[in-house]
TrEMBL record:
PANTHER family: GLUTAMATE SYNTHASE [NADPH] SMALL CHAIN (PTHR42783), GLUTAMATE SYNTHASE [NADPH] SMALL CHAIN-RELATED (PTHR42783:SF3). This is FAD-dependent oxidoreductase. It comes from the Bacteria. GO terms for molecular function: 4 iron, 4 sulfur cluster binding; oxidoreductase activity. Residues 37-82 form the NADH-ubiquinone oxidoreductase 51kDa subunit iron-sulphur binding domain.
Length: 608
């Protein structure tokens, strides 16, 4: 008999691995609003099955906790039961020997404290008390609430213009979002339970690229005038919907072009300028007036309020953040905001043959790094104090930067910009880091026991975020908190009659689709403020639902141009779906809007 044997994967292990994968998929695409009581009870029950039984808090405590949750769900609980759940969960969390026990206790503790009202509603009313989302998961995951199943069905039917009409009911910038949206909707796509989430962004882009022109219906003129300060996605979206409602709108933009961070924050290899200009021009052709190179100060905002019936402040977040490092003000140190602004104004710097160090780990850091490569930089190093996996940039953006030759130096914290005798940049001193525990939900680094290093470079680009130039408006009396303009829930500015605000200047730097939603919400509330109740309505007939989702079919991805080819220009990197790919992708939709999802059974959100 052999003394040792090679361990092989058994059939039972293979089956269990498949079950784990199915569970992972289900959790990844779970509804945005499950009942927190039932969800936590299921989690605790699953953890109880994983217990090894060696420690009492886990072996006995989790099963006891599970029974207490059952009492709540089966209407046997009292208010004292909730206190017992909290004390039991706390004991398990503090005294279990391993993560199986203490994480289960921590989750139960978070739930009973964070959703106390829901637990009490179960006890008092014997029913769920939470506000269940009435939309399908992908629509709930879209900040603008776009009817995704509807336009996917229209694409599958070959009705591309109607698909774009449906998208523009909630999002007037479908081409922009087809190219650069971070597609949070795909995170919740239930097709992911079957094989892969749908390529929703790719389908949107395909629809726009194959649609014909059309003219949306505009309500009769109301005689009311609205000023929109800022021509970014929030301002343009607000102006579009107010125009459809019959109001006269003027956009006041401080720069030479509209687009905001779409133009001055996203490079043209991701969002071509001609495509952006074409989409904005289509919106302006609805009858919107524009005044370019028109900055608005606090004093002028007061004048606008006298000349217009309402005003919408959507100035974005165009100021750069400082690191506070020695040497940061030296010639050769640039902000990412300034670099991308110059690119937006067709005034690129000359990086030919230079070594560039980029500080940051977000999408903007990847954008300026990849832009530097295209500007002729000999070497580009992205310096980040956390791990690559902790970067806030999208994974495909990090991979794209690395494919184009950018180096990523993670776990190195910038300490000083090194300069020569003339004060010019010659390097960046960094301190090696070691990753530690969680702080504010993210792994926090700390200095490692290693000496500092100096990265030789000719330029340092700081890409650590953006600030809001709110000071002129604060002087006027506009209330701000941490630099952000404070608003009421409807977007109105407290104490300023007829003044509304939204987008990055109100929420802080966020995504394009969130800015679009801010503009949409503001338009509806400004319309009400002006004394109207205009509605933006669904004006297309949707194809009948056909259930075709049980046939396994993997996701079609959009491909990119070869890295060796694309680094030499600013042409669009990503290729769209082919006809065959787009129709196959659209056919994968499970049509959750029809088959068993909330209020979409028998109806949809037809107007707002």
């Amino acid at each position: 008999m052999a003394r040792l044997s090679v361990m092989e994967r058994s059939e039972s292990q293979a089956i269990m691995s498949s079950m784990h994968e199915m569970l992972e998929k289900r959790l990844a695409v779970s509804s945005l609003a499950p009942c927190p009581v039932e969800f936590t009870a299921s989690y605790v029950a699953m953890c109880a099955t994983q217990s090894c039984g060696k420690c009492t808090p886990c072996r006995v405590g989790l099963r006891m906790l599970h029974h207490l949750f059952d009492d709540v769900l089966e209407n046997r609980a009292t208010m004292e039961t909730l206190d017992l759940i909290e004390s039991t969960a706390r004991t398990i969390y503090l005294s279990s020997d391993c993560a199986i026990g203490y994480e289960a206790g921590e989750v139960a503790l978070m739930a009973v404290r964070g959703f106390r009202d829901d637990f009490e509603h179960h006890v008092k009313n014997h029913a769920c008390g939470f506000a269940q989302s009435q939309l399908v998961p992908c629509v709930s995951g879209c900040p603008a609430g776009v009817d995704i199943p509807g336009y996917v069905a229209l694409v599958e039917a070959g009705r591309y213009t109607e698909a774009v009409r449906l998208i523009r009911k909630d999002n007037p910038l479908p081409l922009v979002c087809g190219l650069v949206c971070e597609h949070p909707c795909e995170m919740h796509c239930r097709r992911g339970m079957v094989d892969d989430p749908m390529n929703i962004r790719g389908i949107k882009r395909y629809a726009v690229e194959h649609a014909d022109d059309y003219a949306p219906r505009i309500q009769p003129a109301t005689g009311r005038r609205v000023a929109v300060v800022g021509g970014g996605p929030a301002g343009v979206s607000c102006a579009y919907y107010l125009t459809l409602m019959g109001h006269e709108v003027t956009i006041l933009e401080q720069r030479a072009h509209l687009g905001g961070m779409l133009r001055y924050g996203i490079p043209s290899y991701r969002l071509p300028r001609e495509d952006l200009d074409r989409e904005i021009r289509w919106i302006l052709d609805r009858g919107i007036s524009v005044e370019l190179n028109h900055p608005v100060s606090g004093d002028e905002l007061a004048r606008l309020r006298a000349d217009y019936d309402a005003a919408y402040l959507a100035i974005g977040a165009h100021a750069d953040k400082k690191l506070g490092l020695p040497g940061e003000d030296a010639p050769g140190v640039l902000s990412a905001v300034a670099l991308l602004r110059d690119m937006g104004d067709d005034n690129p710097p000359d990086f030919d043959g230079l070594i560039v160090a980029v500080i940051g780990g977000g999408n903007v850091a990847m954008d300026v790094a990849r832009t530097s490569v295209r500007l002729g930089a000999k070497r580009v190093v992205i310096v980040y104090r956390r791990r690559v996996g902790d970067m806030t940039a999208q994974a495909e953006e990090v991979a794209g930067a690395q494919a184009e030759g950018c180096e990523v130096l993670d776990l190195h914290a910038p300490q000083e910009v090194v300069t020569d005798a003339r004060g010019r940049v010659v390097g960046l001193r960094v301190a090696p880091q070691i990753i530690g525990g969680l702080r504010r939900g993210r792994p926090a680094p700390r200095p490692a026991e290693r000496p500092d290093e100096v990265i030789a470079c000719d330029r340092v680009i700081v890409a650590i975020g953006q600030d809001i130039a709110s000071a002129p408006f604060e002087e006027l009396g506009v209330r701000c908190e941490r630099g952000r303009i404070t608003t009421n829930p409807d977007g109105s500015v407290p104490g300023k009659e007829g003044l509304f605000s939204g987008g990055d200047c109100q929420s802080g730097p966020a995504t394009v689709i969130r800015a679009i939603n801010a503009g949409k919400v503001a338009a509806g509330n400004i319309d009400n403020y002006l004394g109207f109740d205009h509605r933006i309505e669904l004006d297309v007939d949707l194809p009948p639902a056909r259930f075709t989702g049980k046939v396994s079919c993997a996701r079609c991805e959009m491909r990119e141009r070869e890295a060796s080819e694309r680094v030499g220009d600013f042409a669009l990197v990503e290729r769209g779906l082919t006809d065959e790919e787009a129709h196959q992708e659209a056919s994968r939709c499970l049509r959750c809007d029809h088959f068993g999802m909330g209020a979409f059974r028998g109806g949809r959100v037809e107007q707002w």
